[in-house]
Amino acid sequence: MRYCRWLVLFCIALLAVSASAQDLVTMEGVNGAVQVIGEGDDEITVLYTWGTPYEMGYAHGKLLTEGVQHLHEVSLGRFMFGIGMGPEEIDAVWAMAEPFVPTADLEEMRGLADGTDGAVSLEQIHRLHIVPEISEWHCTFFAAWGDATSNGNLIQIRALDFATEAAVQEVPLITVAFPDGGQPYLTVGWQGFVGTVTGMNAAKIAMSEIGDDWDKDNDTYEGIPMIFLMKDVVRSAGTLDEAVAMVENAPRTSSYLYCLGDAKIPSARALQTSHAECHVYGPDTLPYDQLADTVYMSMGVDSDWNDKVGGVLADGHGDIDLSFATEDIMTGCGTGDLHAVAFDVTDGLMWLANAQGDIGAIVDGFDRPYVEFDAAGAFQKVAELAEE
Known about the structure:
Layout: H1 2-18, E1 25-26, E2 32-37, E3 44-51, H2 53-63, H3 65-83, H4 87-97, H5 103-115, H6 122-134, E4 140-144, E5 155-160, E6 172-179, E7 185-190, E8 199-201, E9 205-211, H7 226-236, H8 240-249, E10 256-262, E11 267-273, E12 278-281, E13 294-298, H9 305-316, H10 322-333, E14 339-344, E15 349-354, E16 371-374, H11 375-387
Parallel strand pairs: 3-6
Antiparallel strand pairs: 1-2, 2-3, 4-5, 4-13, 5-14, 6-7, 7-8, 8-9, 9-10, 10-11, 11-12, 14-15, 15-16
């Protein structure tokens, strides 16, 4: 079993080496640079951006206008059809949430719109960014470290199961940002999206998420949307305690499950949250089969998937690595249809597989090749770019 796993690890490493990154593309007067990693159908755009929130949003819109248009025309239209809501209804939801959105994110969205030179309106951007609060997410995460992993490193996944029918997978994006006065961080998402659903920062904090409905009677839109709460944590937190406290103290909206990992300790926590409640679990308090130095959740706090994923983690306990995370958990269990991400938070590495194709011919992310990304190197690169 270990031989097979290391063989897979070696093969994926070869893929990552052969998928050399292209040269950086820059534009005079714009605080951003674009690079493409991977090859062919596995290409993923990387945006490096720095400065004020407005400057970072402007660079995003200016450098990636075509992809931003796709997300806010094709994908937004399909999302609206799928949830059965028109512009006015979605605008009403945004109006309830907007007072709770951090000023930095409002400014970044304004910059994104301006960067497209009128191709995408700020109203469209607001609509797109409130859709996650209205939609359903069914995903998987785990974090393992110490005795649970092959070398003690913190290994964490974020398997995103979401609407591939909206064609967001056609414009995948890794954003590596260095805000003025802050720390470098990255998010995995799409061109035109400035929230966070999967992220990690230079302080070796990683964050994953699952949508749930365990306390739906208390749901509200009057709070900070999940995508901006996650971004605030990844952008700001320097320790696990800080990250947990930010979620605990936030004006939350509805039922979400979070995984927060800190490779400096190393350790992680799973959080079961809603508008009214926040329960924090460690390995010894997790409400499923407990494994040393491991937390996990899948498809919801009460889902049978927790037994499924927990059983696989138990089988691999002590040998968990990036190969196990990708092959045994995400591909083996079939989770991460939109994107499947595995972090070695300790070493600053990320493996990402993105869905490919459109309706009728979609290949799920977990069934596609993984592309390696040097997150630690990217944090250093964006800091250097910011100094030029």
